[in-house]
Amino acid sequence: MEKKAYPSSRVLLTAIRLSGAKNAVVANNTVRLKGKDIFSFFTSNSRTKAGQTTKPGNILVQNNAFYAEGMVAYPIRLFNGQIINKRGFELTKNRFSFSENSQITNYYRALVEVRLASQKLNLRENRIEDRGQKLGYLISAPAPLKELWLTKNTRNGKNWRNVRGEFLMKRVQ
């Protein structure tokens, strides 16, 4: 008998999803997710339509507040990011808040997962509130990430730079 990963009655929630988006800004939003079915706050992936694949690039996520209470699979999940106008994926001045009872269910318990090879990720001045100390890494990159920039990100009020993965160039400021 085949066992399903998720029951058919379960819907996995992704608050903001940009597939194949280029030159996009996600700003000044408040996202509150509660329950056992939170997949992600934000995800960006390539998109194939009529045989043509569009890869995301020049994506700016800034001044948003993300709150989770419950089980979160991948808070931020990124795929195939390309550099357009000197920017790949940039997350700046966002707030990520996890309740004391929240659970991060991805293997490395990472805030950001770079799932497929990407060109550039810039995390700057993000504030992470991890009351239950559930996060293990700021970033997990099991696929190559050409450039990683980290500037003044905090977890529970302290500088946080705990990363793992394949980085060709890492700059911490």
What would your notes on this structure say?
The strands form two sheets. This protein has a 16-stranded mixed beta sheet that branches. A two-stranded antiparallel ribbon has the order 4-5. It has no helices and 18 strands. With 173 residues, the protein is mainly beta. 0% of the residues lie in helices and 62% in strands. It is globular and about 45 Å long. It starts with 12 loop residues before the first strand and ends with a strand.
The count of strands amounts to: 18
Radius of gyration: 16 Å
Shape summary: globular
Low-pLDDT runs: none
The description of the largest β-sheet is:
16 strands, mixed
Mean pLDDT across the residues is: 92
Question: What oligomeric state do these chains adopt?
Answer: single chain
Q: In sequence order, what are the helices and strands, one letter per element? A: EEEEEEEEEEEEEEEEEE
Strand content: over 45%
The number of helical segments is: 0
Class of secondary structure makeup: mainly beta
Please give the alpha-carbon distance between the first and last residues. Answer: 52 Å
Helical residue percent band:
under 10%
In brief, what are we looking at here?
By secondary structure, this protein is an all-beta fold. It has strands at residues 13-19, 22-27, 30-45, 47-49, 52-54, 57-62, 65-72, 76-78, 89-92, 95-98, 103-104, 110-114, 118-124, 127-130, 137-151, 154-155, 158-159, 163-172. The protein contains no helices and 18 strands.
